[in-house]
């Protein structure tokens, strides 16, 4: 191809073969402006997972299983966040409806941050305060440049307020559809055999007019699997996003991705088309189309990035 051809972010590679264009994304443009929060279950059923505290922590052979997972997740989530700082809190503490805020943590801080568990383990597992907290947080962050929100919520037990959660999520979706709130996604991860998967599915399967799905969920068998599972779900959720549309220079639709924006885009263009525009999550990226490969070059270049399949889980659940 000609040496003067320019590839514009977020694309890493663009090829033309006849009337077909293959464009590979360098990164997912839907995560730009993303604000992330992580909420860790602080109910009494989690006490054994955090292990003993204080003097007992030095004497007992039982380890804190949550802490290394929290550190790993936070390093990963901070890499997605627009300013590299993740809002962290324990939820379901005290009477079960309280939140214990840990603060804003960066990837560097997460490496050796201590997560001994909440000061007061909760007597119930009430999630509604988590959603209210995240919505309030996002309202503040929009003024600082946030354009999308992602809340990762971890639990090891059945929710005490499933109906309230569904009702509030419906209201949040209406606010998003009306443009009064930025788009939000909730990654809901259950750990262990005390999780009510049917309840999680009822929440996650809901679709909302103008928004689609707000939730995705999975269940990890053990605490040691939690961080890896969160990373897979976040990657999947971010690529689902709001889909995307490809236009030609006259504004005609070349291709529409309604459910998923893949890493490699393939679409047909008119012979005279010299550029295309990808619109995704309210942003537009215009990319000049390079000249077609000559016969001496390969007709079908290997894409530099492709979606990775999610690892198989015994309790896979359903993703939406």
Topology (elements, then pairings):
Elements: E1 11-17, E2 20-25, E3 34-41, H1 47-50, H2 55-59, H3 66-80, E4 85-93, E5 98-106, H4 107-110, H5 128-142, E6 148-155, H6 162-177, E7 183-191, H7 197-204, E8 215-220, H8 226-240, E9 244-247, E10 253-257, E11 264-268, E12 275-280, E13 283-288
Parallel strand pairs: 3-4, 3-6, 6-7, 7-8
Antiparallel strand pairs: 1-2, 2-11, 4-5, 9-10, 9-12, 12-13
Helix pairs in contact: 3-8
Plain-language structure description:
The protein has helices at 47-50, 55-59, 66-80, 107-110, 128-142, 162-177, 197-204, 226-240, and strands at residues 11-17, 20-25, 34-41, 85-93, 98-106, 148-155, 183-191, 215-220, 244-247, 253-257, 264-268, 275-280, 283-288. The protein has 8 helices and 13 strands. The strands form 3 sheets. Strands 5-4-3-6-7-8 form a 6-stranded mixed β-sheet, sandwiched between helices. Strands 10-9-12-13 form a 4-stranded antiparallel β-sheet, with no helix packed on it. It is elongated. It is an alpha/beta fold. Helix 7 links the parallel strand 7 (183-191) and strand 8.
């Amino acid at each position: 191809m000609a040496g003067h051809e320019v590839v514009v972010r977020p694309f890493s590679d663009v090829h033309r073969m006849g009337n077909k264009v293959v464009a590979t994304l360098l990164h997912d443009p839907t995560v730009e402006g993303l604000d992330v929060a992580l909420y860790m279950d602080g109910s009494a059923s989690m006490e054994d997972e955090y292990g003993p505290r204080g003097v007992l922590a030095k004497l007992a052979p039982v380890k804190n299983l949550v802490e290394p997972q929290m550190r790993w997740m936070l390093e990963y989530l901070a890499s997605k966040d627009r300013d590299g700082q993740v809002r962290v809190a324990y939820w379901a503490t005290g009477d079960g409806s309280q939140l214990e805020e840990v603060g804003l943590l960066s990837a560097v801080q997460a490496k050796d941050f201590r997560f001994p568990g909440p000061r007061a383990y909760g007597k119930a597992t009430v999630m509604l305060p988590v959603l209210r907290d995240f919505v309030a947080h996002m309202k503040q962050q929009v003024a600082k440049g946030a354009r999308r929100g992602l809340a990762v919520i971890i639990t090891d037990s059945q929710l005490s307020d499933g109906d309230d959660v569904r009702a509030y999520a419906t209201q949040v979706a209406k606010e998003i559809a009306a443009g009064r709130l930025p788009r939000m996604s909730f990654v809901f991860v259950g750990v262990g055999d005390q999780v009510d998967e049917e309840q999680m599915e009822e929440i996650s399967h809901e679709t909302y007019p103008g928004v689609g799905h707000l939730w995705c969920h999975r269940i990890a068998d053990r605490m040691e699997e939690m961080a890896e599972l969160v990373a897979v779900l976040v990657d999947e959720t971010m690529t689902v996003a709001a889909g995307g549309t490809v236009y030609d220079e006259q504004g005609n639709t070349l291709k529409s991705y309604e459910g998923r924006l893949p890493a490699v885009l393939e679409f047909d263009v008119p012979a005279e088309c010299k550029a295309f525009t990808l619109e995704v999550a309210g942003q537009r990226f215009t990319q000049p189309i390079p000249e077609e490969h000559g016969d001496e070059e390969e007709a079908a270049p290997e894409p530099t990035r492709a979606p990775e399949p999610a690892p198989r889980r015994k309790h896979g659940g359903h993703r939406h």
